[in-house]
Design brief:
The chain has helices at residues 12-20, 23-33, 39-46, 50-62, 84-87, 90-104, 119-125, 152-155, 190-199, 201-206, 219-229, 242-247, 284-298, and strands at residues 66-72, 77-82, 137-139, 144-145, 160-165, 209-215, 235-237, 251-254, 257-260, 263-268, 273-278. By secondary structure, it is α+β, with helices and mostly antiparallel strands. The chain has 2 domains: 3-87, Orthogonal Bundle (Arc Repressor Mutant, subunit A); 105-298, 3-Layer(aba) Sandwich (Glutaredoxin), CATH 3.40.30.10. The strands form 3 sheets. Strands 4-3-7-6-5-10-11 form a 7-stranded mixed sheet. Strands 1-2 form a two-stranded antiparallel ribbon. The chain starts with 11 loop residues before the first helix and ends with a helix.
């Protein structure tokens, strides 16, 4: 089938490709998810000509994936924002990232841990200085929360957020680890990591930091885990992959679910800028020591 025949097909894959089959379109969605919303920002990030970018943005607006929001009348200027339909593409981007990391850049194996000095590790180091866009994610405590700001009553006066990403953790009786979980390098250790953060939370508080855990698990699974271990800090669900896509966080797929690889970000709460990205994390407890050392040096 030729590409221009795709819209006449009864195949949903072909119809989807008719909308986003051009690779520039997906890259535009990637940058919008990362917080670049203005034409100049998008052009600089993508290194694309103004003509090509204008065409792709117009097409995305026409198909309802992006909407324009005017921020200047004279001259007319717009922010380009993803719609719910556009955000529905984020799992597609993560799937492409997983496939590329596993089969193009990697050897085909599945891992929850990174490799020192790999392209993925270098990409994580380039997060330093990057601003985390404002996001609203589901909280294990109910409702929604911001992964950086968290709960206002607990984070008042804190300068830093220690945002640690983990693959997944379950409370007894609320589910089991996916089949073959123990065979995935780096997947084990989430309970030990959470309880160590719990027990050493006063040290983080003393350094002006609040701790937030984030995974792609459902909020109810995280809530059961929090209740079982009496975790005092926010646990946040990125089940819709908003944070993962915004920062292009390293992920892997297990039991049909995209999961975050182990990673710790130290974030300046006032500017939402990443001070340090600890990746790869081969020793969860050791990474907690490293995070405390970063905070001590930043004091």
């Amino acid at each position: 089938m030729r590409f221009y025949d795709a819209e006449d097909s009864d195949c949903a894959i072909a119809q989807a490709l008719a909308v986003v089959g051009d690779w520039w379109a997906l890259l535009v969605v990637r940058e919008l998810a990362g917080g670049a919303t203005r034409f100049g920002e998008l052009a600089e990030a993508l290194g694309v000509s103004r003509k090509v970018l204008t065409e792709r943005l117009n097409a995305l607006v026409e198909h309802g994936l992006v909407r324009r929001a005017r921020y200047s009348d004279h001259p007319p200027r717009f922010d380009y924002l993803l719609t719910n339909k556009g955000r529905g593409l984020l799992p597609v981007l993560i799937a492409l990232q997983n496939w590329g990391q596993q089969h193009v850049l990697g050897d085909g194996s599945v891992t929850a841990a990174g490799v020192v000095d790999s392209l993925e590790a270098r990409r994580m180091q380039r997060l330093v200085g990057q601003q985390i866009p404002s996001l609203t994610l589901a909280s294990a405590r109910g409702g929604n929360t911001d992964p950086v700001d968290g709960d206002a009553d607990e984070s008042a006066g804190a300068r830093w957020t220690v945002l640690y990403c983990f693959p997944g953790a379950w409370a007894p009786g609320t589910g089991t680890h996916p089949p073959g979980w123990e065979l995935v390098p780096g997947a084990a250790g989430c309970t030990l990591e959470a309880t160590t953060f719990r027990d050493r939370l006063p040290e983080f508080t003393a350094r002006g930091a609040t701790v937030h855990g984030v995974s792609t698990q459902r909020p109810d699974q995280l809530a059961a885990f929090v209740s079982h271990l009496r975790i005092p800090f926010p646990m946040i669900s990125d089940q819709d992959l908003l944070l993962a896509t915004a920062l292009r966080l390293p992920t892997f797929r297990a039991a049909g679910v995209d999961r975050l690889k182990r990673l710790t970000l130290i974030v300046d709460r006032r500017e939402r800028r990443i001070l340090q990205a600890l990746y790869p994390v081969s020793d969860p407890v050791g990474a907690i020591e490293d995070a405390l050392a970063v905070l001590a040096a930043a004091a």
